[in-house]
Amino acid sequence: MKLEINKNRSFTACLRDARDFLIDNIETFAQKVWIPALIFSVLIALCVFFRLPNLSLHNWGVSHPWTSWIVQTIIYAGTFISEILYFSSVFNTVNGYGRTRNFGRYLQYFLVSILIDAVFFLVCWGLKNLFTALIGSHPLSHIAHLTILSLYVLICVVLFLLITIPMLYVAPKYMMEKDAKWKQLFRHFSTGFHRWGMLFMTTLLLSIIIGLIMFILAMPAMVLISAQISSQMGLFIGDPANLPGYFPILSFLVFTITALLFSATMIYTIVTFIYVYGSINTRKKTKEEMTIKYNEKN
Fold first, then answer.
1. Are 167 and 116 in contact, with CB atoms under 8 Å apart?
2. CA 253 to CA 154: how far, in whole Å?
3. Around 33, how many Cα atoms within 13 Å sit in the side-chain half-sphere?
């Protein structure tokens, strides 16, 4: 599969070329990733199913706590593993490095991302304690409390974006380059940070596009979720169940299909950021060549 990424593109051109590439190779992607995508979607559907209010399922969990804990642990752990398998399969379809190699490299990226997220949450927790210590026992008005809370949330959001956006460059670089090493993480992160604007605008536009698409595609699932919540609220106050017996099966099927459609949009997201990564590398290389030529002349 030929993917021309070493070209200077705008973020809108990356979105357009990723769309064209996906349309031209949709059959290849379907053949190579449908099994991991289906496994991933089934497990996501089970996670949603378990998180919805369900009185009978709750009572079963209370009666069989260890069985419930084991089943949920298997499902949640399996979801993380299937996520790694799915995304590594998508990268494998693009770079052709092999399933094992891509799985191992994406697993490492996944673990590094968890470590970075853990550091971020520790920083946010530290900021919360700092604000609490500064306030102390001083009486504050409602407006003052709201202002401090808003400031805390704003700082956390800004830190989150500053940390996560550059990682959208690190991921395709590490997956697409065989000689990329984690010991160069800070250097690659710095490159992504310097191109933060392009990565952010791509993320924003992708979020809008995929958000609108999934809002429409997920409507049946949202209707079923609303019906389930309403029915369970009635059960808690003593009303009889008003849903048909096939409702759980129908919900599971709809959740699975919705998750499958969402996983398809993730292919578009990955290919888009591969193009963005290639564009950033091209711009960086061009800048370095111009700097060398300028130094030689002077």
1. yes
2. 39
3. 30
Note the pLDDT tens digit of each residue in 172-227.
999 988 888 888 888 889 989 999 999 999 999 999 999 999 999 999 999 999 88
Residue (of 77, 61, 80) closest to 69 by Cα position? 61
Side chain identity at residue 86, one-letter code: Y
Distance of CA 28 to the CA centre of its chain: 23
The amino acid sitting at 103 is F
Do the Cβ atoms of 131 and 242 come closer than 8 Å?
Answer: no
Burial class (CB in 10 A: 0-12, 13-18, 19+), 296: exposed
User: For residue 212, which amino acid is it?
Assistant: L
Tokens representing residue 196 in the block? 């933060």
Q: How far apart are the C-alpha atoms of 123 and 116, rounded to whole Å? A: 11
Query: How many residues are recorded in the chain?
Result: 298
- Amino acid at position 162, single letter: L
Q: What angle do CA 172, 178, 182 make, to 5 degrees?
A: 70
Query: What would the pLDDT profile of 36-86 be if each residue is shown by its tens digit?
Result: 999 999 999 999 988 888 777 777 888 888 888 899 899 999 999 999 999
Give start and end residues of each alpha helix (H) in the chain. 11-24, 26-51, 55-63, 65-95, 99-135, 142-176, 185-194, 196-217, 219-236, 247-297
**Tokens, residue 191:** 């490159």
